[in-house]
Specification:
By secondary structure, the protein is of the alpha+beta class. The protein has four helices and nine strands, in the order ββββββββαβααα. Strands 2-9-8-4-6 form a five-stranded mixed beta sheet, with no helix packed on it. It is a single-pass type IV membrane protein.
Length: 242
């Protein structure tokens, strides 16, 4: 069975428009009018409940009166290439004469008693903001290119600094160059000293080895002389005894 036609009058009827920039909460109003002679219960639902705050989102509209519903879009990063798929639905039904519990009435309502109207969300960005948004990526890439040290020449660098800053930079460069030269000279001197110490060590080792060999040769000669002396003495003593 088809649902009955919506008795409430919606203003706007089909679209909820939100105008940027969306850096803060953007509010649009939805007017609900009840032209009938009976009270009407209503609910406002959305496909993106975390993105919107709706006040009031439900209630009763007395016969012959109207109510303004504030739909507040929360701040977000706007992308002009992204189409909005958010939708709202206004659901309503005629209130029973003896109604005391509205939530209970909604739970017990039959589908043929419910009426609904759907609205889609439209995001509008001012022309100057759209141009700014489109130009931001180009500005960012251009600024990054300009700030890249690999593409900065000395002339362009000096043009962005005053004379005092340029002078400080030149003095710092000169100081670093002198420091690098001093370290190179110290390194060279250390290598020369190490080479000299190694040569002295080799010479001293050779001299020590030569002296050791001479001492060993002297000891050997003296040993032979003592042996010969003892041999001669032994022969003489032997002859005297005989």
């Amino acid at each position: 069975m088809a649902r009955p036609e919506q008795v409430l009058l919606l203003e706007p009827q089909h679209e909820l428009k939100f105008r940027g920039p969306f850096l803060e909460v953007v509010t649009t109003n939805l007017k609900l009018s009840n032209p009938t002679d009976r009270n009407v219960c209503f609910k406002v639902k959305t496909t993106a409940p975390r993105r919107y705050c709706v006040r009031p989102n439900s209630g009763i509209i007395d016969a012959g009166t109207s109510i303004n519903v504030s739909v507040m879009l929360q701040p977000f990063d706007y992308d002009p290439n992204e189409k909005s798929k958010h939708k709202f639905m206004v659901q309503s039904m005629l209130a029973p004469p003896d109604m005391t519990d509205m939530e209970g009435v909604w739970k017990e309502a039959k589908s043929e008693e419910l009426m609904d109207s759907k609205l889609r969300c439209v995001f509008e960005m001012p022309v100057e903001n759209e141009k700014t948004h489109d130009m931001e990526p180009n500005k960012i890439s251009s600024s990054l290119l300009k700030s890249d040290p690999s593409v900065l020449s000395a002339k362009s660098l000096s043009s962005t600094l005053d004379d005092g800053e340029v002078k400080k930079i030149m003095e710092e460069c000169k100081r670093l160059q002198m420091e690098a030269q001093r370290l190179r000279e110290e390194n060279k001197q250390i290598r020369e000293d190490d080479g000299l110490r190694m040569r002295k060590s080799n010479i001293m080792s050779s001299q020590h080895a030569s002296a050791t060999m001479k001492r060993e040769e002297g000891i050997s000669a003296r040993s032979v002389a003592f042996i010969m002396l003892f041999f001669v003495v032994g022969v003489i003593v032997g002859k005297l005894v005989l």
